Amino acid sequence: MPDKTWTFEAGDRVPDWLMRQTNCVLRFDRDAVVVESESTFEIYPVSPMTSDETMVLAEIIDQQRDAEVEQVLPIKAHTTPRSLSLN
């Protein structure tokens, strides 16, 4: 089966099919490409980033309650754009 690919802009909400969230809203902190391949999601930045930069930000809805994030499938995050990545 061919890979499925989605593109997201900085500020877009992270969809529930990628990460389920409770008591928080997840947003992409930068433009990104998500690839579903062999029961795994891979997230690539559109432009190079350093390992200490953030791909996804969480905004807590109710500070008095715990927030939870659950990945739907295993996720591998990259710091180089897909066309430049060796993975």
What's the domain count? 1
Estimate the mean pLDDT confidence: 91
Percentage beta strand? 35-45%
**Which class do the helix and strand fractions yield?**
mainly beta
Largest sheet: 4 strands, mixed
Query: What's the arrangement of strands in the largest beta sheet?
Result: 1-4-5-8
Choose one word for the global shape.
globular
Number of strands: 8
Distance between the termini: 18 Å
| Cα gyration radius (Å) | 13 Å
- What is the N-to-C order of secondary-structure elements (H for helix, E for strand)? EEEEEEEE
- As residue ranges, the low-confidence spans are none
Q: How many DSSP H or I helices?
A: 0
The helix content is under 10%
Summarize the structure.
With 87 residues, the protein is mostly beta strands.
Which terms summarize this structure?
87 residues, mainly beta, 0% helix, globular
Q: How would you describe what is shown here?
A:
It is a single chain. The chain has 87 residues and is mainly β. The chain has one domain. Helix content is 0%, strand content 44%. The chain contains no helices and eight strands. It has strands at 4-8, 19-22, 24-28, 32-37, 40-45, 56-60, 68-71, 75-77. The strands form three sheets. It has a four-stranded mixed β-sheet with strand order 1-4-5-8, with no helix packed on it. It has a two-stranded antiparallel sheet with strand order 2-7. The chain has a two-stranded antiparallel sheet with strand order 3-6. The model has no long low-confidence stretch (mean pLDDT 91).
